[in-house]
Amino acid sequence: MQYQVFVQNPSEQHFVASIVNLPGVAAEGQTKEEAIAKAKAMLEEQLAIGEFVTIEVRTQTSGLEDDPWIKHMGLFTDDPTFDDFLAEVAAYRRQADEQEVEA
């Protein structure tokens, strides 16, 4: 498995490496590599005595969970090219409409 590590350098000779989304799994070192190696060792220790499981929690909602499109909401939120995509779709629609009028 792969995990993301957030590395900070609060001072010239001090690094902190934290495993993303795992509170309490962070280590310090004099170098970036040392801090990462220590964080990796901590994570391996934690994984040796426990496991990740997935649970599902139902919450009271407004009925949107029955909408098959709801799982796709926000899919392009952080996509920097989405506005360009929408412009291309609009241009294609205008072109198709013009061709339909001409026919």
Main sheet? 3 strands, antiparallel
Radius of gyration: 24 Å
Structural class: alpha+beta
How much helicity do the residues have? 25-40%
Number of strands: 3
The overall number of domains is 2
* Total of helices: 2
Order of helices and strands: EEEHH
Low-confidence stretches: none
Estimated share of beta-strand residues: 15-25%
Q: State mean pLDDT (0 to 100 scale).
A: 89
Shape: elongated
Q: What is the spatial order of strands in the main beta sheet?
A: 1-2-3
Q: How would you describe this protein?
A:
- With 103 residues, the chain is an alpha+beta fold.
- It folds into two domains: 45 residues, no CATH class; 39 residues.
- Helix content is 38%, strand content 17%.
- Strands 1-2-3 form a three-stranded antiparallel beta sheet, covered by helices on one side.
- Strand 2 and strand 3 form a beta hairpin.
- The chain is elongated, with a radius of gyration of 24 Å.
- The N and C termini lie far apart (57 Å).
- The model has no long low-confidence stretch (mean pLDDT 89).
